[in-house]
Amino acid sequence: MALLNQEQIKEIIPHRDPFLLIDEITELEPGVRVVGKKTLKPDEFWFQGHFPQEPVQPGVLTVEMLAQAGAVCVLSMPQNKGRVAYFAGIDKAKFRRKILPGETITLEVEMIKMRNSVGVGKGVASVNGEKAVSAEFTFALGAPAENAGK
């Protein structure tokens, strides 16, 4: 059951179609932990060109999905409302299994370090309880939108 749907996610992170890559948030402890889901429809735009004879989920997009879930976790904190989380690094990325059209990816992210406006999250993407992708990512928080460019 969704805690946050896509419309509610859009109130927290700035991503929009076609690059909002999470469908729902099912668990959320702001600034600590988040669980999200993405069901891959067979007509996702990337399947047209990513091995059309045998479509598979691009690993880099799965890492982006984890990062977006992590952004929901951090940006749902009241003091971070209106800010943007930018990638600052990706470490320890491992790709363990193919993810296929029609499968639902569970995205679990835990924040492991936060200092000022820089933090580190650890994420695992799984399908039916089987680990598919894991990575640690560093992010930097930008100024709230109303202060951008000042």
What structural keywords apply?
150 residues; Thiol Ester Dehydrase, Chain A; 6-stranded antiparallel beta sheet; 15% helix; globular; EC 4.2.1.59; HotDog_dom_sf; 3-hydroxyacyl-[acyl-carrier-protein] dehydratase; lipid a biosynthesis; lipid metabolism
Give structural notes.
The chain has 150 residues and is mostly beta strands. The protein has one domain: Hotdog Thioesterase (Thiol Ester Dehydrase, Chain A, Roll), CATH 3.10.129. The protein is 15% helix and 39% strand. It has 2 helices and 6 strands. It has helices spanning 6-10, 59-75; strands spanning 24-29, 33-39, 85-95, 104-115, 118-127, 130-141. The chain has a 6-stranded antiparallel beta sheet with strand order 1-2-4-5-6-3, covered by helices on one side. A hairpin with a 2-residue loop joins strand 5 and strand 6 (130-141). The chain starts with 5 loop residues before the first helix and ends in a 9-residue tail after the last strand.
Q: Structural class of the helix and strand makeup?
A: mainly beta
Fraction of helical residues:
10-25%
CATH class: Alpha Beta
| Tally of alpha and pi helices | 2
The CATH homologous superfamily is termed Hotdog Thioesterase
Q: Return the CATH architecture.
A: Roll
Radius of gyration: 15 Å
Count of the separate structural domains:
1
| DSSP strand count | 6
Query: Strand arrangement, largest sheet?
Result: 1-2-4-5-6-3
Main location: cytoplasm
Family: Belongs to the thioester dehydratase family. FabZ subfamily.
EC number: 4.2.1.59
Organism: Hydrogenoanaerobacterium saccharovorans
